[in-house]
Design a protein that fits this description.
Alpha-Beta Plaits, 2 helices, 32% helix, globular, Heavy metal transporter, metal ion binding
Length: 69
């Protein structure tokens, strides 16, 4: 199995643990995602797997947050 670098996404608008959970769940629902770590303090989400970057950004934005790579 080839090694894939995690994709890091900047997520703006998270203010609490519930926000982190919402973003994490949105990203986990994207096809190809194997693991997600979200940190509101750094405004970052780290995503493992082979998911399309645009799909990841769309998932975060559909959850109500601003996202970019």
């Amino acid at each position: 199995m080839p090694f894939c670098m995690p994709t890091t996404i900047t997520v703006e608008g998270m203010s609490c643990g519930h926000c982190e959970q919402t973003v994490e769940e949105a990203l986990q629902d994207v096809s190809g995602v194997t693991d997600v770590t979200v940190d509101r303090e750094t405004e970052r989400a780290s995503v493992d797997g082979d998911a399309d970057t645009a799909a990841l950004v769309d998932a975060v934005e559909n959850a109500g947050y601003t996202a970019h790579v």
